[in-house]
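Aim 2 progress update. The chain analyzed this quarter is reproduced below.
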Amino acid sequence: MDPAAWHLTLATPVGDAIGLLSHLAAAASWLLPHWYLLALLVTGSWGLSKWLVRRLARKASAERMALELIPERHFDPGLEEIFRRGVQLARASTSMPWWAPRRTKAVQIRLRADGSSPLRYRIEGPAGGERLLSITPFGPAVTVKRGRPIADKPRKHVVRAEFILRGKPTAPLRDVPLDPDPLQPLVDAVCDLRAALGDLAELRLDIQRAPKWTLRARRMQLMSDARRRERREAQRTARSLRQDASGVEDSLGWQLQQLIGGKPGGGGAGGRRLVMPPVPRRVEPAEALGKLADDDHLVRVQLLVMCASDTRGRAEARLGQLQAALDVFGGGSRWAMRGWHLGAWRLGADRWPSRRGFERRWELGHCQPPRPNWVRLEELTGLLKPPTVYCRLPLLAGDLPTFEFGNPELLLQGIHQGPDGRRRLVATYARETLFEVGVGKAGGGKTERALAQAIGWAHAGGGLLFVDPHRDSWPRALPFLAHTTLAHRTALIDLGAHGPAPQVSSWNPLDMRHGQVAHEVVEATADAFASALGWDDATAPRALTILTAALAVLVTVNSAACQAGRPEDQTTLFHARPLLTDHAFRTTALAGVDGRLDEETRAWWQTVFPTLPVDAFAVVLNPITRLAANPVTRAFLGQAAGVYNIRAGMDSKMILWVCPGGNGPTDRLITALLARDLLRAVRSRRDVPEARRVPFRAYFDELITLTGAAPETIASMFEDFRKYRVHVHGMTQLLARLPGPVRLSLVQNASTLASTAGSQSAIAPVTAEWGDEPGPDVVAALDRFDHYLSLTVKGRRIGPVKITGPHLDDVFATYARPDNAAAFERAARTTAGTAPLDQLTIQARGQLGRVNAFLTQLTPTTPPDSQEKTYK
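Predicted structure tokens:
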């Protein structure tokens, strides 16, 4: 090549470079006095990018979804299930469009308490992750439903806080066990929240996958710091060794040893000790990086808290409680509130310049923590699931309504003391309280609680029947019922016949004045005898047949008397004896109703009855004779037109107090007759449309006594009465002593199951229904009038919760009218149609003559021989 061309080719790039450098120098010389233009360009580009990112972030945030997680009472997840849920959350955080900024690629866990529930658990995140998050590894124990937007009303006082991880950045949070629930401290922090004061507390945890490049840079920094520390440690150790060696050589002992024996170790004098400096230890990545060593299941989190109230100071106190609750998770790393304290002022999320960013992240769900806040999913175990079975949830006003005097929709249950020491009367909704069972030792407060409930129901306008074999409940309730407004609705049926001039009410189980169905009256009465006497088709078939046939005739006679407008001429139970043993009366009665009896009954009296031996009637006549021998039961059951009518009492909202008088054989028979009549009357309400059936409540004290007389009847009440809007409340000392059918029906259908103190063996069947939470030992140690109850409110079970039974002298003190008690009892007896015992006894003895006179007029004119031939 020509040397000139060679030089020309070589000079061209050099010239270009020189020209470029000159242009750059000229541009730099121009920019120096015009630097503000470059600054404006950079600032404008930065501002435009920020504006674009915020617009995209807002657009992405508008497409978020929300899920509400509602756990069952038995929710008990394992560590693997919770971990899988965390993996789902981390995966769902990336379910965003490609253009969405990183701050929006997060899933948010919201723990909220506003008075509607102890702690609502809510998941918010990208709309694309809804299908992934809707199916949880928790199975059917957690119900997932679409969450509605939450609109909070403004509160007067609001405090905000952001929590960041402090401590060693590579150290994990404390490994909190699942039992008790890790959420328990948070639940306890909001347990005394009062919705009436505008209290609100909410914690939001944002979960986001850790950025790879940021994580790599952090790892490099941590490794560099670790190596630097090792080198400094090695240098520090070397200096210490040299100082120690110099100190030894300069000591008097070492110098004397050198003069006497030469250098130590056989060396020559004047030698110096050789010190080898330590080599820096190799830094292990796993040790230096800790929880940041692996990418798997590592996430970045943001923790925001907001508390509000309409009362000054409550929001700040709530924030302090939540801060203490988060301290439970502290270990090598801990949650600490971001900001500084300057005397009485706190510079944090509530102050400039942090407040604006906090509110933007709070409203839009953006995850932009001021520091990495890296954690592994295992560290968040306690926050990745709703409250479990091991979480003790508080009882809020929204869970159990507060009792209001005079409100017919509420039924008093007792006194509940909240976590903050406040006591309030709690209630259940009357329409949901179908059946109640109270168990516990004598004097524990079962009857007192039932009386308070009954008195509150009566004053609210409701009707009730209170059956007490021992009568102790009436004098206890009397001062609180003694109001003029209740006098016309209250009736006392007392078969104890106390005092020098006893007064007794009257009832005819065979009374047909009120349009009863004849065969139902016969069946109810016969079943009452069978239940009290232990008759059935296998042990006493003939007794049942004879009694049923006799009752069919007597009821037919009574129907004829009522149709003839002569109800005072009706037969009673005691006329079964002359019907079976008095030939003349039987002939007259059968002839008088011959055309009214059905063919089967008429055929039995014509063909079967004459073949029966005389001693066949003894088993039927014996209980009737016992009833007749007792002047009280003779007077009570011996009246043709009795006053007691339970069906009319139900429909007119009467307050009926029935005291059978004891628990002997005769008393049990009376109880069985009353119980069976109640069952018949309730079932007869099928002729009334359901919406028009008047609610009525039946309280049975001493169920052991009552069910001893009518076990199948009481069991049927707990099974059937709900359909007819009649609700039963039963009290007993021992479930085990109740007959099997009654016990099973009680426990199966109980809307409220309550227990006072007692022996552990007696209480164990009740606590077993609660899953032994609390156990028998806890319930057995209750104080007097304290109860554990499980309740039904808004279709779900509440409790068991501890309440104090209402004491009448405290709860109903303003209702007490002791001065009106005597007059009110007289009015209650008058309403029950009581009369002197002697007078009713005389009327009962003369009733057979009145029935004979009516039957004589009713009997068609036929030759006596023909009648004798037909009915022997």
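The CA atoms of residues 574 and 625 lie 8 Å apart. DSSP finds 31 helices and 24 strands in the chain. These observations will guide the mutagenesis experiments scheduled for the next reporting period.
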